[in-house]
Amino acid sequence: MKMEGTPAVHGYYMPAEWEPHSQCWIGWPERPDNWRDNAVPAQQVFTKVASAISKFEPVTVCASANQWANARSQLPENVRVIEMSLNDSWFRDTGPTFVVGKSASCSGTPEPKVAGIDWNFNSWGGIDDGCYRDWSHDLLVAEKILAIEKLPRFQHSMILEGGSIHVDGEGTCLTTEECLLNKNRNPHLTKEQIEDQLKAYLGVMKIIWLPRGLYGDDDTNGHIDNMCCFVKPGVVLLSWTDDETDPQYERAVEAVSVLSNTTDAKGRKLEIIKLHVPGPLYMTEKEAAGLFQEECEAKPRLAGTRLAASYVNFYIANGAIIAPQFGDQKWDDEAVRVLSKAFPNHEVVRIEGAREIVLAGGNIHCITQQQPRVSLSIVNNDCFHA
């Protein structure tokens, strides 16, 4: 059901990621020009991620017709596998941004309390700057997911990826200027106009803009989900490094300055928890050689390229933190310690081998999309207009 108007007008807002989920959506990797060795190593790690999340909430994996049987054979039986055409498997960015409602219909009968935003998508930058040249299948992913779930759909012409926003569920949105103000997204919109759209579609009241994202995150032009996220209202995790010679240090210090000198939508000063990045890590000759890059449709991935690896790129499941591990023992262990302290009521689950995901340009948060769970008994006096 396509909705007219904006989510906020209908009483919808984007909840925080730690609020209850009904399920998690994940795509299935296969393209050989972005996932090395015909995506076999990546599929093994995606299976680990899906399996881990499925212990805490239902999981649906979407795979192409060519890959459905392969995905079904690798994934545990409690994971639903459905067929869907994909250009690639980054469901944080191509799937819908789910919003929850606060209203009842004028008749007094509770209406659906979950809906989705179907943003426009241009492969993180379009023909000239994007990650691949054909994204026609990805443009339909959000619409298909919402149709499967029979949920209301808000369509927006603005180009926006889910990894470029984080919310606290209480009116505050985190993002980066490097991404949302990039000329390869919405050059016809001013910063103020983009803010207005985020407020109208996410139901937020305040946007906190960090200047830049994680160093080396060129694929997404600095998505916030590699750089900074909310732990709870008033508390954020920030990708940090103690190495002052690391280019990430300047970005982290810059972010601390912004975060320390602002308040959230409720007027709270922000507590900043520093989460050290691994490495630095670089793509090896062997890893690059495993990609089919002759006449490829995807952005080339070259040996020696610094990987945009970040422990902030985790998934919050119902009662668990699904955390990437990169084989850097010191910082892997430190990340688990920090996350365990930040989320004392969650079990931190390590996903070994998450390097396979970052080789292709993202990590666990990037490949997942949570669908919130909302009780129909929670209504107010607003009317719901279809």
Automatic annotation (TrEMBL):
Protein origin, superkingdom: Eukaryota
Keywords for this protein: Hydrolase
Record bears the keyword Phosphoprotein: no
Alphabetical GO biological process terms: putrescine biosynthetic process
InterPro entries in the cross-refs: Agmatine_deiminase (IPR017754), Peptidyl-Arg-deiminase_porph (IPR007466)
One example GO MF annotation: agmatine deiminase activity
SUPFAM superfamilies tied to this protein: Pentein
Record flagged with keyword Hydrolase: yes
NCBIfam families to which the protein is assigned, alphabetical: agmatine_aguA, PRK13551.1
Record-linked HAMAP family: Agmatine_deimin (MF_01841)
PANTHER family: AGMATINE DEIMINASE, AGMATINE DEIMINASE-RELATED
Protein name per UniProt: Agmatine deiminase
Organism the protein comes from: Malus domestica (Apple)
Species lineage: Eukaryota, Viridiplantae, Streptophyta, Embryophyta, Tracheophyta
